[in-house]
Structure formats: C-alpha cells, structure tokens
Give the backbone structure.
Amino acid sequence: MSLVLITGGLGFIGSHTCLSLLTKGLDVLIIDSLVNSSKENFLNIKNLVKNNYKPQVGKVFFLKGDLRNNKWLDEIFKKQISIDNPIDSVIHFAGLKSVEESVLNPIKYWDANINSTLSLLSSMEKFNCNSIVFSSSATIYKPVYEGRITENSLKEPINPYGNTKNTIETFLKDLYISDKKKWKIINLRYFNPVGAHESGKIGEETVGKPSNLFPILGKVISGEMENLSIFGKDWPTKDGTCVRDYIHVMDLAEAHFSALQFLKNNPTQFKSINIGTGKGYTVLEIVEKYSKLNNVDIPYKFSDRRSGDASSVVADNTLALELLNWKPQKNIEDCCVDSYRFLLNKLSKIK
Ligand code: NAD
Ligand code: UFG
C-alpha cells in the first residue's frame, strides 16, 4: 500500500491533485488548516470520485490542522506506521500565496511558509519518509522582458512571498546534500495556474479580495466588481499588456502525479522543474478569449503598472517534458471555459 500526504490538499491546486491521484488508485491523506479553503471541498472531492470514477480509486482521508503543530504532525506519521500504512511520500502545497499581503505582512508569510515546511520536514526525517514534491513558483525568477525562462535563469525574487519559496528550495537542497543517499526532492515551479476541473465542482476559491487575473474576471462577470483594471498598456509586448503562461490546473495536477512516479522510479535526487505550457498570452488576449468563448461582457479600463509585475513570464518546459513523461493536454480555451463553468456553479449556489 502506498499513502501520499497532501498538505494544503483542500486548496485550489491541492484539491485537483488529490482528484488526479485518487483516480489513479493512490491513497491520499490531506492535512489542511482551512485558512484558505473549506471542508466543503473535501466532500466535493469525495463526491467527484464516487460519481465519476469507478471502481479502482484510492481512499481519501482528511485531518484539519496546522502543519506548524509539530507534535501533532509527529503523531500522524507515527500512527500511520503503527497501522501498517506509513506515509511514503508528500506533496507540499500548504502555504500562503498572496504577493500583496506578503509585502504588507512579511512576518506572517515567513512564519506560515517557512515554519510549516520546517515542521513537516523534521517529521518526515524522524519517521523516515524521504520523498517530497514542493510547490514552488515562477515568482522566484528575476523578472525578464522577453524569451522563455529556464530552470537555470537567474533567481531573484522581488517580494517576501517569492523569498519564502526561494528559501525553502535552498533549505531542501541543504537537506539533500546532508545525506545524498536519503532524499528524493522535486521543486515544481508553477507558472500561472488557472482553470478548474471540467465538472465545475472544484476550482479556485479565494477567501477575501482576489488579486489574480482569473478570480478577478469572475468578480467582474458576477457584478461584484465594476470592471477589470488592466495594469499597464505600454509594456514591450504585442499589444502593450503583460504576457503570462497560463497552465490549466488539471495539467498541473497531472504533473504532480508524474513527479511522484519519477521519484518512485529513480534514485535519490534534488531537481527543480518548470511547469508551464511554454506559450504566453497577453491580458487583452485573455479578456477577449474569455468573453467570446463564454459569451460574457468583461468591461475593463487601463491603469498604472502594478508594482513588481514583469512584462513577460513564460516557461521553457523542456525539462518537464523530458523527465516527467508529461505534457499539457489543455489549452487556453479550456482554461477560460472551465473557469467560467466553475464560476456559474458557484453563483448558482449563492442564488
Ligand atoms: P491555496 O491557498 O488555494 O491552497 C493552499 C492550502 O494550504 C489552503 O487550503 C490552506 O488552507 C492550506 N494551508 C495554508 N497554510 C497552512 C498550514 N500552515 N497548515 C496547513 N494548511 C495550510 O493555494 P494554491 O493556489 O492551491 O497554491 C498551492 C501552493 O502552490 C502554494 O504553496 C502556493 O504558494 C503555490 N503556488 C501557487 C500559485 C498560484 O498561482 N495559485 C503559483 C505558484 C505557486
Ligand atoms: N492583471 C491585471 N489586472 C488585475 C490582475 C492581474 O491586469 O486585476 C494582470 C497582471 O498584470 C499580470 C496578469 O494579469 O500581467 C496575471 O496576473 P496574476 O496576478 O494573475 O499573476 P502573476 O503573474 O502576477 O503572479 C502569479 C501568482 C504568483 C505566482 C506567479 C507565478 O500570483 O503567486 O503567478 O508566475 F508566483
């Protein structure tokens, strides 16, 4: 038997990854403090698995708690060993992710992201669980003006959130070097995760005010926001708005399954891998596609550049294609349509 611990498994990317692993027959234990998600997502995952995927799906368990509670975490690892179902690998999503909030409250971010990882890794070491896939981010790279970003591009985060991700990668490397016969570590550096599961039942929920493009599009369409502010129209891109590499969350989920398989089938190692599509779209292109495909109006206005934005952030995903036996299956149209389906489903529950 093999049990995967998924920290932050009820969040946006975690919930889709749980679904992906379960449908492939892996058992999953979710730990989540619900600081940015809700228990309802656990039921959503269970129902999706029960209703759509039969019969050889894995089992899913959920424990509510904060990773920084190290004694509690130790007890979980210990208990799993005692019932002969040890945790044999971890996907570590749990953390705080708002760039803006991290600038205003760096202590909160360093505490949440660093201390939870420290606690997790010390429990893993204590109970001999040595495989981890870590949620890193393209935000650790120095902003560039054009071209694709490779894993060897310069790392130079420009906000506290990015600094915590970069620091965790460094910490993981130290751990790997401490005993090269022990650890199997992959940092997945995500570009811009968007979209939702095709059922529309799970997707990106934000507690509080969103700051990312797709959730904001949702607020504009639902009428909660009057219009979209497009940050800058004089960037050195084809239409003057910023370019990003939007990756469908189900493709991202599959990348985690592939990363786990890679760790299972290979000796100890430390790798960092970009997860993106390699294709970039401007903000205006997204607005146009989203409104046309879903037949909705998206009023927008231009405003000043947002501090910390980069002109273009597009992945060179060659390494992921080579190593992980993985390839994005969805396109930008799927991202727009699936996001909207999730939005409609959410709005229908509110009415
Ligand atoms: P999310 O906020 O939806 O999910 C994170 C989950 O972790 C939430 O359910 C939250 O309740 C939980 N959590 C937070 N701190 C915790 C703690 N101390 N103990 C237990 N649970 C805790 O975020 P997401 O978009 O699913 O992102 C997942 C990971 O991927 C994060 O680490 C994020 O930094 C990283 N990432 C996200 C993006 C993105 O644009 N969404 C891009 C790059 C990297
Ligand atoms: N944008 C607007 N108006 C808005 C929101 C966003 O014009 O109201 C633009 C941004 O300027 C940017 C694009 O839409 O050009 C995407 O912005 P997001 O905020 O959705 O995403 P970012 O690329 O800024 O950053 C995101 C996550 C980070 C993650 C990074 C990885 O917020 O956590 O992708 O590249 F690290």
